[in-house]
Amino acid sequence: MTTPPTLAPATDNAPTDNDPVLRADGVTMRFGGLTAVRGVDLTVHPREIVGLIGPNGAGKTTFFNCLTGLYIPTEGTVSYKGTVLPPKPHLVTKAGIARTFQNIRLFANMTVLENVLVGRHTRTKEGLWSALLRSPGFKKAERTSEERATELLEFIGLAHKRDHLARNLPYGEQRKLEIARALASEPGLLLLDEPTAGMNPQETRATEELVLAIRDKGIAVLVIEHDMRFIFNLCDRVAVLVQGEKLVEGTSDTVQADERVVAAYLGEPFEGAPGEAEAAEVAAAEAAADTAADAPSTPGTTKGEAP
Amino acid sequence: MTTTTATTPRGLLPLPERTARLTTAAGALATTATTGLSWTWSSDFPGDLTYYGSPAGLQIVTLTGGLLTLLLAASALGLRGLTWLTPAGRHAPTLLAALATFAATWFTLGAIAVQLGGLVNLEPGGFAAGAAALLTLLGALALPPDQPPTDPPGNPWQRFTALLTASPLRPRGRPLPTWAEILTIAAAFAAGLIAFTYGIDTDDGAPFVGYLLFIALAVPALHRAGLIARLTELTHRHRGIALTAAFLAAASFPLTQDTDQYTIIGANILIFATVALGLNVVVGLAGLLDLGYVAFLGVGAYAAALVSGSPESALGLHFPFWAALLTGAAASLVFGVLIGAPTLRLRGDYLAIVTLGFGEIFRIAMLNLNGTTGPDVTNGAMGIPNIPNLEILGFNFGETHDILGIPIATYGNYYLLMILVTALVVLVFRRAAASRIGRAWIAIREDETAAVAMGINSFRLRLLAFALGAALAGLAGTVHAHVVTTATPEQFQFAGPQPPNSAFLLAAVILGGMGTLSGPLVGAALLFLIPAKLDFLQDYQLLLFGIALVLLMRFRPEGLIPDRRKQLEFHETGQLDVPDQRLPDPAATTGVTKAKA
To answer: Does the keyword Transferase apply (chain A) (predicted)?
Structure first.
């Protein structure tokens, strides 16, 4: 099932029918003259895994940053469980949306356990005075935090490395730790920005299982990814972002079958696409070339051409 | 010199291992014995080294060095009951100790010859000491390296550095009983107190340089032997006891002094160290570069001076001490928030520039509030003089009191008061660092964007760090005003030859080790003591200080007492993965550059 980008998406595949966890209404983000995200609507329902795909430069990460308050959207609103989110990242996290980053951003010189404990920041209240006076409440909160962090480390399988510095972990474990840190803030929605970038097939497979396990804990997941197999295996629903606009949204099969998605990835011009003239030009110029060689280059040429 | 083969590592000199060990031990014994002789005929040289049978002045340094070398050499020989002295390296510490003894002895002899005009001033005892120290050094140089070098080092310098390589700590045979561990901690702190007291009590000039030379080589010797690592293990296991022992050792310093001559240095070191520890909250934990920190000390000092009951105070108030302390801390806190609130949204360099400006603005404002260019509050350049001595519950700090039968005069009293303030600041630092707030500070320092995405209100926490740091400096400033009895603008500069200034404070934190508890304390002690004792260098002081700082940052960028994190950050090697593992010595790994995250 496909929906035109301007309309609100249908709530297909939603397992329960209470309020959506996340509702983005007409989110637009402009940087000067460049419109990176244009009127995107997206909803995520409880216990749902939603994928967000699109060629490089389609505005996926910008959209993520709008959701998490790192950017203030030029237009549109983002609401979490029915309340509009304040445009401050720490308040968004407090409200219940946690995220990971496209390029890993761990606290490299803190231990694995400390990284997860930092994630608990919003769920603990102890201020400076209670830390200085070491009140019973402070000790109890520290103990609870540590227990909770240890549980999370066991969940992702890093409990045996709790006292290692984050910087010394192998790449795949750093990715996992970033997820654990995000989970420590007890989110209702987890945003994953390319969680399998740079991973080998086994690690990707493990991450898939981790994401499913997270969903089974009752946490909704919104994931950006380039690995199509990963996305189509995992997601209940997939939205395709092309040049800042939502092109298609639907089940894996719907999206896979959609010609426009194939076109967007392979670079053939499609009807009503912005920047069509340029894309056509490029396609014509490279018509002689191998299609396989075209695939990576064409999205790059159409990128950022929006008027 | 013949090339050494890779199979049998040799020392720098071609001697059989056993002969080398025996030579070292015999030399060390002889060095120890010669300190009982007269080294010079005249008592003109400071310390009076003319007596037979009683080592004095720098002879004590040589005596200590000789005994240390002897013990380490005996331990290296495997003498029963002494092997615990070298839980890590065997020969490297012996060589360093021999080097320290040699340096101190020959420096002393050279200083005698230079100051009194010629070698003729040396007695035979002096020559004997020099020869014995040289013999020890030669013996130690012939010892084979502890770690077989991976590739046979070529030139003598490489082979020399190979001799000094650190070895990993061997696992402990059987654990000591708890009482013995506690006793060891107590003994270590007592030894530290004695060494420190000796340093403070040495005469300015040559004797202090000799002492410094010795310490600079003997401490690495203890480090190579693994004794410092063992002690760290013990203090980690008995944190409370170790802190109490350190506190008691520090508090008993005035009891070792007959006059106030050196206790004032002690009191000033404590003030300086306390402020440095406060700055460590701001710089070390939260990662905010504050170049005008001394201004908060100034705010505290001026606030305390205004309410001290000084006849020159514009307010003419006389608060009891606790109220003055709170006033000083609160005034600094207010200024901290006032400066921090608009500027802490800036990142990195911008904040440094603003704080640098604030430091200067504070000083100039104090100069101008003199009644002619502004309202009369601070007396301008004259400052607020005649700050009376404190009086707490009838205990007047200006009078001499007897504690345990030992008279404690004015500065001794202030020293003891300052110990309490320092202990308070230490407590605040430790508890703040090991809490949710401290973790958030470190997270902001590490990666602000990620910290914010984890729900940390970065602005609020940075402001909290800034305000806490300011308040701690204000506390110290209150006592500072009473110790110096005058609050003038010139005490609170950005840079100057006298320690409490922003540049020295920052240097103390970085030199000691950012983010650690003991680092700034050690750094502050060194940075105060060295300029105070090397007065004779006068104009070259700052130059030498600068060179020393550059060298230190080149070879030990993590500071004298590194944070475990920092050490890993600057000297990263593959096997540092396992946290319990002893870290390789920085000198051995300085070639490894820091990997950028």
So the answer is: no
